[in-house]
Structure formats: C-alpha cells, structure tokens
Amino acid sequence: MRSLLQKLLLLIVPAIIILSQNVSAMAEIMPLNQVKRGMSGTGYTIIDNTGQIKPFNVDIVGLTDDRKGNNTMIMARASGDLIERSGGVLQGMSGSPIYVDGKLIGALAGHYKEMNPHTFLITPIENMLKIWDMPDKRAQDKIAVPEVKKPDTQTAIQEFKTSKDIAPSEENTSAEDDTNTDEVRPSPEEEENAVMVFGGFDTNGLNFLEKELSPLGFKNFLAAPAAGSRTGILHNATLVPGGAVGVAVVYGDFIVGATGTVTAVDKDKILGFGHSFSHAGNVNYFMTEANVLGSVSGMTGAGMRLANFGNIIGRVNQDRDAGIAGIIGKFPTVVPITVHVKNNALNTNETYNASIAYNESLVPKFGAAIAYAALSKSADSLEEATVKVDFNIKTNVTENGLMSRKNMFYNDTDVGQVAIVELLQGLNLICTNVTEQSDIYDIEVTMELDNERKTASIVSAVPDKKVAKPGETVKFTVTLQPYRKPAETLVIPYTIPLTANEGNITLDIRGAALVPVTQGVPQGVVLPSTEPPAKEYEKKINAFLNAARTNQIIIEPSATPPAQKSEKDIKKDIENAKKAQERLERAQKRNQKSATPSQRFDTNYIIDNVIQVNINVGK
Hints:
By secondary structure, this protein is of the alpha+beta class. 18% of the residues lie in helices and 37% in strands.
C-alpha cells in the first residue's frame, strides 16, 4: 500500500504544480548533478485528439557519456497506461517535460537506433535554459513592407492560408536496448533531427526540396496532404509544458515544419523539442499551434504522434542541439509568395499562396521549390512540355522596386526543373549582396503550361539588300520551321551599327539560348574585379535583368578567332576606328542613337539553332 501511495504521489504532485502554477512562470528545476539512477518521475504529453495533457511514469536508468564533445544525456524508461496504449515513446513526444520530485529535470529527446521503444533519452534542462541567453541577431532583420499597414507586433504577415496537414512530428524514436549501467556510450551519430513534414508538395516537389535542403540540415523528409483552409495569427496565445507546438519555415498552401512538445514556459518565452529542428542556430521561423489528431502505435519502434499546424502564435528564434526556443506574440519577418498556373491542356487556372520565414539562405530555395511544386501539382505531366514564366519580385535592389523576368522553357523530361532556374537565380542574387542585406517584400510568379514542344529552327534569312551603309536598316525575311508544324516567315529589321567597318561582315542569326564561341579569357581563368563591391553587384543585377530570352532571335556580327595581323591591316583598323568615331559624333549632334551590334527580336518559339548571312557594308 505504501509503495502504491508513493507512486500515486509521484503522478499527482507534478500535475498539481503544472495546473496550479501561473502559465507564464518557470518551474523549479533539478540540476543534472542531482539526477541519479533509480529515481522515479513523471512526464507529461498529449497523444490523442482530446487535447488533454496526460502523465506517464519515468524511471531513470543512467547517464550517457559526454566524451567526444557530446553533452551528457539522461537515459530513462517510460511506463504507465499512456505508454502502453501508445506502444512506447512516439515521434512527436519530443520536448515532453520530465519531473522528479516535482522539479523539472529536462525534456524527452528521442531514441538511439535499436533501443527498446520504452527507453528514451532526456536532454537536461540546464542545457536547454542556455538557449534563452543566446544572441538573437535575426530579430534585427526588419523588412518594411511598402503600402502595407503592419500590426503592432511588427510583423509583415497579413493573412495566411494554412494546410490541415496530418503532420507526424519530429524525431526518429527507434533506439537501443535497455541498459542497467549508470554510464552508457551510445553512438552519437545515431541521433536524429526532427522529421520534416512537407504539406502540399507532390513527389516531384518533395524530391526537389530534399536535394536542395539536405545540405542545410533539413533531413528526415515526410510528405503530408494539404487542405489549404484559411487561418492566421493568434496574438494572445498561451502554451503550457506538455502541450503541443509547431515550428514552420513555410506556411500556407504549402507548409514545411515539424510538431513537438513544449518543455518549459517563462512569461512569453518557451523551450521545446529537446533536440534541434534543423540545427540552424539563430533563426527566424514561425511558431504555430499544433493540434494532436492521434497516434500510430510504437510497438515496432517507429510510432508517431499525428498533429496538424494551426494559427501562427509567435517566432522561433533559436534552433540548437538542446532544443528550440521561441517568443509568443512576436512574429517572424516573412516573404509572401503567390504562384499562378495556367494549364492550357487542361483549361485550368490555379493560384497558390504561402509565406516563407525570412532567411537569406532559405528564401531562394523555398521560393523556387514552391513555384516548381505549384506547376507540378497543376499539370497532369511535365514531360514534353513548354512553360512561359513571368515573375515579379518586390525588392530594394532595383530603382523601380521590382526584379522582373519573362522567359520560355522547354524540356522533354521535366520542364519544371528548367522553368524555375531564373527565379532561383534572381532570388539568389538578391540574397547574396555582399555590401548589405537586400530585402524581398513579395514574390509573384505566373506560369503558362502547354503539353507540347514549342521549339523552332531557323531555315533561312534573306536580306532585302546586299549592301548597306552604317546606320541603314536591312530587313531579313526569316523562315522558321516549328517542331512538327508548317513553316512560318517573319520579317526582322537589323540596323547596321555606326561602328561597323567597311567591307564584308558575317552576321550570326541565332536563338538567344545558344551562346556563341567568342574570343575572351581562357576557361578556368578568373580575373579579379576592379569594381567596388556595390558597383559589381549592380552590374550583376543589370546583367540578369537584361539577359536575352530563349524565345528571342539575336542578330549580331559573327565572332571570329584572333588572327596574326600585318602592319597594313593594323593601320586599316585604326583608320576604320577613326571613321566610326566620326560617324558616332555626327549622330550625336543629330540626336540619333546608334544601334548596338547585337539586336534581339521576339518570337513564339524557343529557337534552337544558328545560321550565318553575309552583308557588305558600304561607305
């Protein structure tokens, strides 16, 4: 009877403490040096859709070795009705607070591979408390969204779509067999980060993200459906130890994140998970509500708690080995993205909305991935397809506040992979400014999909005259042969540049996607820039914005390999240069602009070849 009463008190006392304490008050802690093998305690978590925080029994087994730079962990065994029903410790229970004698000793942190599902590791609360003292430089990332009235909580979020994802939470919970030693040495590389839930992404989108994000610490990928019901921000949320919480990097019709459990609360600050989310350090992520739906049995060692993401309730600002930390009521700076997809084959128009938590290393990858996934979801196939892409990025890197590009792409296997390349390049350019942070206020992408090949070859280009003076216009009748369609003709005017030398010149008439072989720096040799960093960055932006499009025809003088010139030829070149300069000066006096040697013309096809035409430049 005495033993039964003691166990009952171990369950009741911590529960009374949790229920009676102010939700904003930090619980009393037990230091690691006081935790001993044989102690008994209680953990608290949610495993079903009742939303009730329920207890489970905890017996301390021992401490792990802290060699090779690993922090000491507490090994424990779980039991009780809740654990029997769940089949062991589940993914999603990470962060569950563990109490001994009513004092918080730490957070359930997961398993090592091959462990019994009832045995788990605890991250000491001392290690987690250090996270609150770490610098929060990303709190200074303030993006002033133009023409948007921001709420008092300094957030750029206005309204969001959220996915009702069935979202298994974070860590892998299979682990080693129980041990009776005070000190054990499990293999540290067997620890897992959070299971990343990707809602709204199809298989193609998930594969793209896995390739792009794995090097950044995002692992353990899991797809989940997205319902896209509307929700938003909850400004006065409350969290309690043992309750569920979500962390998200992308939120809306697409969602990327994980759910876990709250370990401790101190006023508006929280700790959770007991291990990292993506091991990214100081971060700027969404903190969300997490609604537990149920659980899958852990009898096989692979059990998980199922949850979905609710309203945004704050900002996660630390993502460390010992857990995550966040601030309730403070919200992350975000980049909204809208993707419109018109599928001409299916006669459909779809619009997708999401928000990306601002992070310069993540925004380009997630922006491109969301565009790719939206295209993939809106198409019955991306094979043998052509896509027109038009995107506008609101940013402070250009004078007019926009980075805009239009282009056309074809691929016979997966057109989405090439269609998003320029969007990824543009976002990367903005986010790699070496002189200062460049802001992104909004991304809008429009894509038009045709399940056919829209390419064409230039068959011929006939000039209306064989001889033309500098400054005169030659009209070329160009015959195009579209893929498996009747030939088409169009008239393209080309103005002879005032700088053109007298005599025969050869013109390349080519598709803009084909880069000509030109004389220049040998491959592998990179000359250092002599421009100031700001000027060099401006040149990169302008070069990107002014790059030719794949559906353009370019007419320009053919590049000729360098040749050994005689003294006579050199004198002739000097004389021609003087004449060209005189023509330019006369044109300037008449306010006449000189045509550039390279001139572009739009078509309805991606041009895939090059031909050459000779013109005689007269006096």
